[in-house]
Amino acid sequence: MARLVAAFGTSHSTMLMSSEEHWIDMFDHVDRRAPIHDFEGVERSFDWLLDHPPAGAPDLIAPGAIAARHGAAMAALDRLEADIAGAGLDALIIVGDDQREIFTDDSRPAIAVHYGETIRNAAAPAGMPDDWYGRDQLRRLEDGADVRYPVRSDLALHLVHGLTLGGFDIAAVKDLSADRYEGHAFSFVHRRLMRNGPIPIVPVFLNTYYPPNQPTPRRCFDLGDSLRALVESFPADLGVGIMASGGLSHFLVNEKLDRMIVRALRDGDLSPVVSLPLAQLQSGTSEVRNWICAAAAARNLALDWIEYVPAYRSRALTGVGLCFAHWKQAGMPRADGAGNPRRGRLRPRFSPAAGARLPAAPPSRGGRRG
Question: Which of the listed CATH numbers 3.10.20.30, 3.30.470.20, 3.40.830.10, 2.130.10.10 matches domain 3-316?
Fold first, then answer.
């Protein structure tokens, strides 16, 4: 049977494709257009934030502080890339959101799974933008030609069948139309964290961003718990990982919220995160849902390490709460030498694998935004 052997979390902001010089240059011209919500979920303009600075704001955007945060984020990405490569995975489930890259306002599922043999990432356009931010965004697209990345389609179909039997209403995606391609939640992983060769993935889409059908935090927890159960019921000898792509807070950095989430992940108790008011999970911060899902799936794994970088990037203290994490099998040494954390105490409401016979899986194969 398959085993869930590793879990990961990563932010996917354009910042992570940008140089230290661009961080220091700051993103004021970008974030003036960003959908900004304050810590209570109230929409605020960039100019309003400029007029209401917190104490100590200049220190947070001093060039030295920005450079140090850039270095910490790049080091965490390198470490995460090495851990993914070292996990020996046969498949990686990526839980990410779509921001009108595949689904449009005309039709947007709350939860979808891509089960085709491949998923396409588009080539960057020939004409490059004039501004550095636009060029950095395009680094999540391909150089010269489209690329079709492998999908572990037999496992994906198993998840579609099992989740449907377990009470989840799943949109099943077999292929993308010619003008659509994998969103940046997925292309960032391919382009930055799989540079030594792609691992077959299973794309799981959560509509974190757009009302009226955003899944609740509790639903995301149940989804993650169900994904783990279904992986472990898959009749093939596979080592499977799961990854959250996105988050944490943005476009206003909310250190209090982010550090609460990091503490919950360290403690292995997701209850405080699952009970967050929906008003706090708007705009980019909505991507915390992806972390809830992956962390719920990882409850039988041990947190190896987690790195949080409050990446302030403008005079208004907009930015991204960047976060990176790795879970490994319980009993393996942690990177910090500590013992395994407590498993999460929040229980799933149901298991899709319990009492349900799944359809036979197909024959196994071998192993503007942010």
Answer: 3.40.830.10
